[in-house]
Amino acid sequence: MSIYDYDEEGVIRVNREEGYEDGLAQGISQGISQGKDIMLISLIIPKVKKAKSLDRISEELELEPDDIRHIYDAVVAAAPEYDAETIKETIMNN
User: Would you tell me the crossing angle of helices 84-93 and 8-49 to the nearest 10 degrees?
Assistant: First the structure.
């Protein structure tokens, strides 16, 4: 194969890999934040169902109330269904 031969499949593969890496790098901080919110939603829903206050939940999770207030408010607003997907969308849109 000559250096002048064009390897279209190779170019596509390299572009795809570079695009994936760029997308991953750009979205990593946002992804971590969203992943943390999703995890917290699953921890907060049962506590809200038990009628625990924001202060009590933050104490149990060892987090500051201001750090979880947006999730707590979204969970409370989703009552009585408490659909995690709806709560996640509400948080992401705010």
Answer: 110
